[in-house]
Specification:
With about 190 residues, the protein is mainly alpha-helical. It has helices spanning about 5-25, 30-60, 75-85, 90-115, 140-145, 150-165, 165-175, and strands at about 60-65, 65-70. A hairpin with a 2-residue loop joins strand 1 (about 60-65) and strand 2. The longest helix has about 30 residues, at about 30-60.
């Protein structure tokens, strides 16, 4: 039950980073930071496995099939066994990191070309998060995007957060992807 949301989250980390760089006007430094996070995400399962192997050697643990047995404590063997098996997450992390890195590189190249040629930027509709918000203003932006009542979007969001594990990560990604509303665009409360 929990594996499908976990796998989808692992697969969408890289493209989500690329989408954040595309929807926000990041500086070149921001693009490079997101690119380094994306690359680190791709190699992270191997780093965890390597760390597990180092811990096994340091504490004198021996391997029996795929489980490590440590002389000092049994829980340490379970932790090292979990770290050793983390390399299997690379099946999901590496493709996600590759797609994210490609998206980030394309976004960075387009940003550099646009700034070099001084071409006018084509205005596009951006849906802003509201400063009059309950948590992050994401529900306001989604209700603005789909022309729905704000209370209905909030109710559906709460229900989905309760029913679907991992929906909070999608909400967090939307919070990062939608820029906050400018002060001149705010409407008075009331």
């Amino acid at each position: 039950m929990i594996y499908l949301p976990l796998i989808s989250i692992l697969l969408l980390v890289g493209p989500a980073l690329a989408a954040i760089s595309i929807t926000r006007s990041l500086t070149t430094r921001g693009h490079l930071v997101l690119l380094s996070i994306c690359i680190l995400y791709g190699i992270f399962p191997f780093l965890v496995t390597w760390g597990g192997m180092g811990l096994a050697e340091r504490f004198g643990c021996s391997a029996e099939a795929v489980r490590f047995i440590c002389p000092s404590s049994s829980w340490l063997g379970d932790v090292i066994s979990g770290m050793f098996m983390a390399h299997w997450l690379a099946i999901f992390a590496i493709p996600s990191a590759i797609f994210g890195a490609i998206g980030l590189l394309i976004s960075l190249i387009l940003k550099v070309k646009r700034s070099d040629t001084n071409t006018p930027i084509i205005p596009r509709v951006i849906f802003y998060r509201s400063r009059h918000k309950v948590f992050a203003g994401v529900c306001y932006a989604l209700s603005q995007l789909w022309n729905l009542p704000i209370m209905g979007v909030r109710i559906v969001t709460v229900i989905l957060a309760i029913v679907i594990p991992g929906f909070i990560f999608l909400y967090f990604w939307c919070w990062l992807a939608f820029p906050i509303e400018l002060r001149s665009q705010q409407q008075p409360v009331g």
